[in-house]
Amino acid sequence: VPLKEVFKEKFLVGAALNADQTNGQQPAELALVKREFNTIVAENCMKMESLQPEQGVFDFKDADNFVRFGEENGMFIVGHTLVWHSQAPDWLFVDEAGNDVSRDTLVARMRNHIHTVVSRYKGRVHAWDVVNEAIGDQETLRRSKWQQIIGDDYIQLAFQFANEADPDAELYYNDYSMLNPHRRESGIQVIQSLKEKGIRIDGIGMQAHYGLDYLDLNEFEESVVKFAEQDVKVMLTELDITVLPFPTKEMSAEISQNYELKATLNPYNETLPDSVGTKLAIAYQGLFEVLLKHQDKIGRVTFWGVNDGQSWRNNWPVKGRKDYPLLFDRDNAPKKAFQSVVSLVKE
Ligand code: G3I
After folding, report:
1. What's the CA-to-centroid distance between 32 and ligand 1, angstroms?
2. Distance from residue 43's CA to the centre of ligand 1 (Å)
3. What is the ipTM of this complex?
């Protein structure tokens, strides 16, 4: 039974798609997506550097194909992401001399980008990750260029502009490590500061890049409950669970020359041992137990990628490893983790 049937009437289930897929170069993966999922998000093609690589010069080719695929298959289409400090084009924050632009200039650039993109897909893209990763690891708001040049209210402005451009699209705030108590509190503050000013926010996306040694289910549940209390939809937007060890910064720098270290950090280069596949299945099962317990609060669960072979995890935080973070293997076959999740809802 496909995932979208298993979790029907509980929450939407989806995947992030890359441009090769929606441009037709990966028919097997695309067939899997049609069979299993009822919602999609753009992994990279709707980021600002992709859509507006040069000021005022928009490139919608990949994004158009992505949206068309979703429409043809009746899917809930999510755009990712309008305002982010990463994957921003080089020109965005600077003037011709290379100095920071003024607040007014950056607000105008933001407004133009959001209006152009959201209006183009009005009524077709159902929801937007309006602002991505605005929370700092120490402080409430990350000291990004957006924050430094405009001020904390850049978040409000982004939501206002998105709402102007498509009042019917759902508008989300999206961030990582939302089970961390400091980051959870900051997330709540972001939601509240919008609501206090009467600015619409419809949901919070918990990115959910977890690991076998990074998934505290109690903290996770606490976040789901606390976010839901803010009267927003709660979503798992970028779900994957790495089975690989997390290197220190020093290790990452050393790895290209040090083969022993490389083997330590990339232990399943040939195949994934059954025992690790089982650990992954148990981790996914635990997570989905919590999701099902709170299904009234959860709007959507989206995996960050279709199968293990294409996951960004193979290249982060170390390039060229072999990871196994998703429910489908490199041949698109369902893994033990798929069975463990599906078995929770067998009637
Ligand atoms: O497309 C170019 C290709 O032409 C070039 O030859 C190649 C050489 O490195 O790079 C390709 O671009 C890469 C792109 O992915 C497409 O594959 C970039 O280098 C690479 O940095 C980029 O990584 C993406 C990353 O965001 C960038 O920050 C990942 O695919 C994508 O999964 C990841 O997604 C983010 C979410 O948007 C936000 N949350 C975290 C998540 C994981 O980092």
Report:
1. 22
2. 8
3. 0.94
